[in-house]
């Protein structure tokens, strides 16, 4: 294991505590102690004896730094438990493959304190056979979810999940700010906001089905009706500190769909094609 920060320490403790033979290396050596794992004297020594190399590093710049110092990874599987972009994942795969190893990208969907519990979920992508070879070890960390053979699938999935949270939370913040500026009790408003988020939760699978099928029924409102509300929202958010949340771009898109004769379709049509 390379990196004993918050995630790395929790992972090392869990694996060592489960009886696995774990060797750790950390850039700052004094932070590598206390996990129950053996501490290696160098990066190369840490990867010498094991076929599974976990990179629990801050970011992909750190991943690149460490991989550059490991030119021979023959027979090893490298898993980056590190948040990054799709290109970060593809670059790491190219580097590891060129060094003779196999690469799995991972998304850490858990805080350190939940590692090793049922509340922890980890996303993995890369060659399925490689994932399956290490699945029993990876399952010790939390529920492993294999999300695709493309190296970048876990990074895209992981970031998209973060995006769902940011959009919902920032939408809530814009709403609370808007009503507060209008002199309305935000706590009372929040009680009515929660069910709105619930509608998105309830409809998530049906929305995904619409996308898969390429059919966009209007539901409770069609695009023409949505456009009226969206324009009012842009106006409400005009003076807020967080901008309109991209609603100008959405309004432009809806207008062009209406102009193309699709005003009777539902909101999912905005991402058609
Ligand atoms: N913590 C969370 O709740 C959480 C949740 C989900 C996802 N994640 C993701 O998990 C990853 C690890 O997070 P963390 O919370 O464990 O981070 P962290 O506590 O900041 O630890 C970062 C680790 O990276 C090492 N490092 C940084 N730059 C390096 C470099 N250039 N070369 C070698 N080592 C380097 C640090 O070594 P030093 O000790 O020498 O600085 C440390 O071991 C991140 O990608 C994070 O986004 C974290």
From TrEMBL:
Top-rank taxon: Bacteria
NADPH-dependent reductive aminase-like C-terminal domain boundaries: 153-272
Pfam families: NAD_binding_2, RedAm-like_C
Molecular function per GO: NADP binding
Name of the molecule in the record: 6-phosphogluconate dehydrogenase
Location of the 6-phosphogluconate dehydrogenase NADP-binding domain: 1-143
SUPFAM superfamilies documented for this protein: NAD(P)-binding Rossmann-fold domains
InterPro entries xrefs: 6PGD_dom2, 6PGDH_NADP-bd, HIBADH-related_NP60_sf, NAD(P)-bd_dom_sf, RedAm-like_C
């Amino acid at each position: 294991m390379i990196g004993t920060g918050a995630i790395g320490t929790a992972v090392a403790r869990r694996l060592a505590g489960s009886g696995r033979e774990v060797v750790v290396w950390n850039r700052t050596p004094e932070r590598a102690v206390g996990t129950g794992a053996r501490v290696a004297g160098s990066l190369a020594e840490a990867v010498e004896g094991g076929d599974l190399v976990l990179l629990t590093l801050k970011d992909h710049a750190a991943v690149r730094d460490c991989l550059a110092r490991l030119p021979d990874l023959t027979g090893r599987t490298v898993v980056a438990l590190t948040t990054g972009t799709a290109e970060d994942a593809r670059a790491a795969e190219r580097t590891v493959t060129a060094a003779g190893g196999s690469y799995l990208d991972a998304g850490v969907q858990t805080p350190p304190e939940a590692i090793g519990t049922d509340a922890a979920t980890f996303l993995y992508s890369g060659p399925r056979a490689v994932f399956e070879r290490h699945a029993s070890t990876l399952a010790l960390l939390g529920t492993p979810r294999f999300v695709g053979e493309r190296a970048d699938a876990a990074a895209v999935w992981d970031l998209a999940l973060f995006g769902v949270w940011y959009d919902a939370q920032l939408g809530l913040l814009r709403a609370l700010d808007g009503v507060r500026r209008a002199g309305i009790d935000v706590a009372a408003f929040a009680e009515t906001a929660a069910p709105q988020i619930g509608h998105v939760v309830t409809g998530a699978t049906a929305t995904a089905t619409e996308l898969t099928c390429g059919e966009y029924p209007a539901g409770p409102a069609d695009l023409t009706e949505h456009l009226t509300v969206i324009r009012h929202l842009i106006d409400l958010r005009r003076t807020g500190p967080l901008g309109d949340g991209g609603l100008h771009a959405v309004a432009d898109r809806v207008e062009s769909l209406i102009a193309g004769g699709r005003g009777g379709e539902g909101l999912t049509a905005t991402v058609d094609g």
